[in-house]
Design a protein that fits this description.
Layout: E1 7-11, H1 14-18, E2 19-29, H2 35-40, E3 44-45, E4 50-54, E5 57-61, E6 64-65, E7 82-85, H3 88-98, E8 103-113, E9 116-126, H4 129-152
Antiparallel strand pairs: 1-8, 2-7, 2-9, 3-6, 4-5, 5-7, 8-9
Keywords: Cytoplasm, RNA-binding
Subcellular location: Cytoplasm
Family: Belongs to the SmpB family.
Length: 154
């Protein structure tokens, strides 16, 4: 199955608006207790989350996985930092890339692939305000063109 495909659980739509995504990586996640059950129930939020490299390991911060409803006192902390599982070669590549100014690791999508929770992270370069405006104009022009084409066929 290609990278980024599987049963989609959560998506970070704001990432495409705020960053130019140059490269993507598929990472596994180290989970505890009832976290996988909450993920399968779709109780994940990637909005304010970000990835950071420390001690040659990649961690995701502020990813919110809600408590599992049927869980008991052993439920997990919803916003704890979670380790991402990547190959050493990929981590070294990310270390070199994120040390450049303006680059960040952004979580894009969480999905279940072959029964395992995966996170698609992207190496993104921050957009400036004028880049965002330009993208909005381009989308609006494309919508108008599509409408005109659709009306011409009626």
């Amino acid at each position: 199955m290609p990278r980024g495909h599987g049963k989609s659980i959560a998506q970070n739509r704001k990432a495409g608006h705020d960053y130019f995504i140059e490269e993507t990586f598929e990472a596994g996640i180290v989970l505890q207790g009832t976290e996988i059950k909450a993920i399968r129930a779709g109780r994940v939020n990637l909005k304010e989350s970000f990835a950071r490299i420390s001690n040659a390991e990649v961690f995701i911060h502020n990813m919110h996985i809600s408590h599992y409803e049927q869980g008991n006192i052993y439920n997990h902390d919803p916003t704890r930092s979670r380790k991402l599982l990547l190959h050493r070669k990929q981590i070294n590549q990310l270390i070199g890339a994120t040390q450049q100014k303006g680059y960040a690791l952004v979580p894009l999508k969480m999905y279940i692939k072959n029964g395992v929770a995966k996170l698609l992270i992207g190496l993104g370069r921050g957009k400036k305000k004028y880049d965002k405006r330009e993208d909005l104009k381009r989308k609006q022009v494309n919508r108008e063109i599509d409408r005109a084409i659709k009306e011409s066929f009626k």
